[in-house]
Each structure stands twice: as structure tokens, then as C-alpha cells.
Amino acid sequence: MNETAFPTPKCTRYSVRFSLEKLNQNADSLRVRFSHVRERNGALVCAEGAVFARQAPCQIETFFSLGSDFAVYEYPAKKLHTLGTGVTRELFAYPRASVQAIDGDGVTQVYVVSDDRVYRLTENGMEIASVKGGTCACVHRERLFVGDGRTLRYSLPIDLSVWTDRSPQATGDIFFADGAGEIAGVFSLRDKLYLVREYGITVLTADADPLSYRAEQILCDAGKTVAGSVAVAGEGAFFFTERGLHYFDGARVSRAAHADDGEIDFSKSLSAVASEEKYCACVRLKDGSPELYVYENGRGRHVHLSGKELSAGRSLYFSRGDKIFALSERAAPEWGNCALAFSFSLGNGRSGNYYAEAVTVEGKGAYTVKVVSESGARASVKAKGDCRARLPKALRGCTFRIEVVCEDGNFELCAVNVHARREL
After folding, report:
1. Burial class of residue 414 in the structure, from the number of CB atoms within 10 Å of its CB (0-12 exposed, 13-18 middle, 19+ buried)
2. CA 102 to CA 80: how far, in whole Å?
3. Which of the 8 DSSP states describes residue 396?
4. DSSP code for 262
């Protein structure tokens, strides 16, 4: 019997650590995906949940937060119900925006802008202004500005119910005949008025005297703005276009970094609001499923909650059916899993055969780790925080996709270590 000697390949074993800092810095190249997880104190934890806030007497078409109260719109009955006071206002056209402003007597007034009118809500009814409505509104320099198509209308200062005084420095309107399209959103920021148009931004220097108003166009190659997506967060504004989430800082428009918005269907209208520096939107994914999208701390993430409309007040609220919910700090997803997913490469172009052998999830909790190689080979393993877990079979390849699924709601995920082998 002849014995044959087979050469044993030289191998080197090493580990690659993916901290949250590294994942955030390389979120695009690593194709990082946060599914119902959020960062807190240097770790990933469970994302927001839904806390019941108020019951409505009807199916909610849209709604507004009014401090400690809510106004909900019933369609096709065309009624606006104020839940706390129980007041119902009849024959109300479809409301598009709600604005609160302090009048000359120091009283907070609520104005609702509908498709065809501007209304001031009174204690037991409403006052209809003699002006056409619009799709968006804000208060700037003590005037109410309403965007309607290519037209921007403005009220009298302080008395925002007056729209027909045509004396100098009183009320009026501005028609924009340029090629930027209709007004999709309007907001006040740093003493200027900004109009997010279908294609670009218009900056209006709107001081006390309307005769001195000056408009400047900021052109941007961002695609068409998605209706309902404009919201001010921090020192700028976020909005979706057909090419994804964008950010306007007061001077220029740029693509939001690490947005992770490739699965969102931008052909569908959406509802968006912001609270401080947190931007939220009720969106539809390309597979038709609803989801809550959140952008904060320089990256986008997907929260497994479904809602129809959003409103910001003492909290962030969303509607579903005949109920209003507030976003809680942390709760299990309504569907799917809490998961972190990203792609990575072994070798970086160096010669040799590479194998993924084991993983370690730094943190607390129980996990299922799934690894897929570029050839489609798969392996999964159960893992506990800070414990090394060997894959049932080593996966050969250079490029891999890993998904860490959190199995309990009290997890804290700090980093993922991939333990690899290189054979020469």
C-alpha cells in the first residue's frame, strides 16, 4: 500500500470587528440596514412602539395635534371633530395644514388651511376667511403664508384672518412663473421664508413690508419633490424626491447621508413631520406594505409600525383607523424582527481563499445570526451576547451579507465580530 502525502495549506485566522461607529461611517458601502432598531448610549436597542393616545368618533382621514387636544377629519362626511371639546364643525373642506399663532391679545389661535378655504377655529365653531386655501402654510413675520400651486398668499400681520385688505403693506399674493413648479412646502427659518417647489427651493426675503419682498431661486438636481414630505428638523428641512431623501440647510440641497430609502415607493403620497432633529414619515414600500421611516443622527431606519397620517405636538403621533397613537421610546415590532444587516468583504483583494467561521455579538441578549456568501451559500447560528458562536459550516467567499436578528426585546447590540480564516 502506497501512502500519498497531501500538502496542508497554510492558514491565518483573524477577526474583523464591526462597531456601530464603523457601520455608521461606512453605511453606504456596507449597505447597512436598521430594521426596527435605534441607537441609544452606544448600542442598538429596540425601536419605537405605539402607545394609544385618543379614540376618535370616526375613521380618521387626517388629523392635527392642538397642544393637548386633537382635531380629526371625517370623510366623506366633511366634518372636523375636536376631540377634547367634543365640537364638530360641518361642511369642512379637506384640511391640508394646521397652524397655531398668537394674536394681538396674546391668545393662541388655530388656523386650518383646506383645499378651498382658510378657517379660524373658534370655541364652538369656525370663522371662514375670504381667501382661497392651499396645500401648505406657515407663520412668518407675524403673517400667515399659504402655498397654493404656484401662488403664495399672505395675510395681514397679527390678524391672520384678514386677507382682503389691499392697502400698501397689507395682504397680497405672489405668483411664481418660473420653471420650478408648484409649491410643495413652505417654512420659516432664520428670518427667511423658504418654499420647497417641485423642482428646487425659492428663498423669500419677506420682511415687514411686502413691497420689499425679494425672491431667489436655489436650483438643485434632486428630482421631483414628493407631496407631503417637507418637514423642518433642527437647522434645516428634509423632504423626499423621486430620487430619495434630501436635506436643505438654508443654502444648498444635498442627498441625506446613509438614508437607506431604496425600498420606498416615491410614486405614492406620504405624510411627514419632524420633532426637534427627528424626521418621521409614513411611507409605502415597493412591495405595497406600509411602514414608518425615521431619519435621525445622520442615518435612516425602518420602524415596523403602520400609520396613515402623522402629526407633531407634545409627542409624535400617528393615526390608524379611528385611533391616534403616540410613539413610545421602545417596543417590539408589530411585524418582522429587530435586526441589523450589512455586507462585508474579507481579504480586500489579497490572494488566498477566505472562510467565515464564527461570529461574536458584543452586548446583551439572544440572537440568530445569518450569513450568506456571494455564491449563495448560507449558514445560521444561535448566539448569546459576548459569546463566540461557530457557524455549522465555514462559508467560503470574499463578499458576505450578515443579518443579526434579535430574539428578545431587551437586547443591547454594541458590535459584531466576524472570525475568519485565510488559506494560502
Report:
1. middle
2. 22
3. E
4. T
Number of neighbouring beta carbons within 10 Å of residue 308? 16
As a whole number of angstroms, the distance between CA 161 and CA 164 comes to: 9
Instruction: Compute the radius of gyration of the chain from its Cα atoms.
Output: 27
pLDDT recorded at residue 4: 56
Output the 3-class SS for 63-105. EEEECCEEEEEECCCCEEEECCCCEEECCCCCEEEEEEEECCC
- Judge whether 216 and 193 are in contact, CB under 8 Å: no
Terminal C-alpha separation, the chain: 31
> Cα 317 vs. chain centroid, distance in angstroms?
13
Report the SS3 class of residue 378. strand
**Which grid coordinates belong to 160?**
391672520
Predicted local confidence at residue 1, as pLDDT: 44
Phi then psi for 20, rounded to 5 degrees?
-65, -35
Distance in angstroms (rounded) separating the CA atoms of residues 394 and 329: 39
367 beta partners: 383, 406
Residue with cell 464564527: 358
Separation CA 90–CA 78 (nearest Å): 6
Closest CA to 122 of 75, 95, 97, 89: 89
Q: Where do the DSSP E strands lie in 115-230?
A: 118-121, 126-128, 136-140, 143-148, 151-154, 172-175, 183-189, 192-197, 200-205, 214-218
- CA–CA dist 362, 356 (Å, integer): 17
Residue with C-alpha cell 426637534? 276
Q: Which residue do the cell numbers 393616545 mark?
A: 53
| Residue 359: half-sphere exposure toward Cβ, Cα within 13 Å | 28
Distance CA 230, CA 248 (A): 10
Under-50 pLDDT residues of the chain: 1
Predicted local distance difference test score (pLDDT) of residue 219: 82
**What DSSP element (H or E) covers 419?**
strand 412-423
Count how many Cα atoms sit within 13 Å of the Cα of residue 192 in the half-sphere of its side chain: 17
Q: Residue 117: how many CB atoms within 10 A of its CB?
A: 18
C-alpha cell at 287: 412591495
Q: Strand, coil or helix: what is 371? A: strand
CA–CA dist 156, 165 (Å, integer): 8
Helix (H, G, I), strand (E, B) or coil at 22: helix
Residue type, 200: G
pLDDT in tens, 161-184: 999 998 888 999 999 988 899 999
Which residue(s) pair with 247 in the sheet?
238, 254
Secondary element (H or E) of residue 23 = helix 20-25
d(CA 28, CA 31): 5
